[in-house]
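Repro:
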Amino acid sequence: MLKSDSIIEKGFFGRRKGRPLRNAQATLMEKALPELSLALPTEEALDLEALFPGFEKVRVEIGFGGGEHLLAQAKANPHTAFIGCEPFVNGVATLLKGIQEEGLQNIKIYTEDGRDLLRALPQHAIEHIYILFPDPWPKKRHHKRRIVNSETLKILATLLKRDGVLTLATDHDDYLEWMEECLNCTHHFEIIERGDLTLENRPPNWPVTRYERKAHAAERGCVFLRTKPI
């Protein structure tokens, strides 16, 4: 049985910035991000109705990378609000460009530690949560840093609506086994679909991301788990 690894521990793990931003990207970060950036309350839970007036449904993606999946979902579901969390500056800049090009009005961005966002969300209010291809932290001594763990699942189960969905995906065999064991041991979620994520056959509105293309090029199988709270 897996140990319960708390997401409350201090410290943030992950890369904040890669290659230097181009001028257009830097301008988006300066001009567009402040209007879309999400600030967390210090004590009470986020007021989703005030944050997204007129939207009845809210979905969350933790670690959106370059934003390809988030953009596709937001475009396909214009009456659903989305919160995307990603600390990687270059990924945020790429998402901002996509939001601008598509003229989307249903996305807010949180650029800090996703664990803080989870703590601030109201209970039983989220329709769908996505954690797609999170850092696998493959070394055993780093497993405690994995975002998918027993304690995280417990929190996620309280955030989702009764008929809500949690979707996970990975290209790392050990992390997939870890995910399934966490799900089975904690009894907070039931796996309702397990499938291979190939270049040809995939769920609706799930584009092939740059990261996923690298995984397929390296002949690493990509698998997704769709689950629901018990």
